[in-house]
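Tokens as discussed.
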């Protein structure tokens, strides 16, 4: 298991390190909220549901799952849309990978480009999110798919602090936040 510091909470980070669906869900939730809040979301769901299994989430009634998502503290600031996305993601994992999330990066020994391609077709994953997640797998989970760094683009480079893939503790979290603020400021110019 990777020694993670993505959620900033030991139990949430342990879940992320041991449950591939939790990790993928945290990445999905990482938009319009702080990174740590996004990656804490799977632990909230797991606590409320008694575990985090894509099959169970895929089969749940949508309103029931939304109610679970909305419980205070809410899993995301946009509970309705994000609950739907998480449920769509769970359904895709069940349909395409027989409920085993890790098959995205392990089935048929894929190279980095293939893993990226598999990620990009998941609900809620575009090019950038897929590259960041691929980089997270390579940098913190020891993904051995050949060419993963090239497929991840700039996010795959060594020695950068650009995304959640580079967060290994409080100092790197601050560095990633500073990078993101710098990028937002450049866009406003």
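Sequence:
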């Amino acid at each position: 298991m990777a020694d993670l510091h993505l959620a900033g909470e030991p139990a949430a980070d342990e879940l992320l390190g041991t449950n591939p669906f939790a990790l993928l869900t945290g990445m999905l939730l990482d938009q319009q909220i702080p990174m740590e809040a996004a990656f804490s979301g799977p632990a909230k769901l797991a606590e409320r549901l008694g575990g985090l299994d894509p099959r169970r989430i895929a089969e749940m009634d949508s309103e029931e799952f939304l109610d679970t998502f909305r419980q205070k503290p809410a899993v995301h600031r946009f509970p309705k849309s994000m609950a739907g996305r998480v449920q769509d993601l769970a359904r895709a994992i069940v349909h395409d990978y027989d409920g085993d999330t890790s098959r995205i990066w392990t089935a048929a020994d894929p190279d980095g480009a293939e893993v990226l391609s598999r990620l990009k077709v998941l609900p809620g994953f575009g090019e950038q999110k897929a590259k960041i997640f691929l980089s997270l797998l390579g940098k913190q989970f020891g993904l051995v798919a050949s060419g993963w760094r090239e497929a991840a683009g700039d996010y795959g480079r060594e020695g950068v602090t650009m995304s959640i893939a580079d967060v290994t503790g409080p100092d790197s979290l601050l560095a990633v936040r500073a990078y993101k603020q710098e990028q937002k400021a450049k866009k406003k110019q």
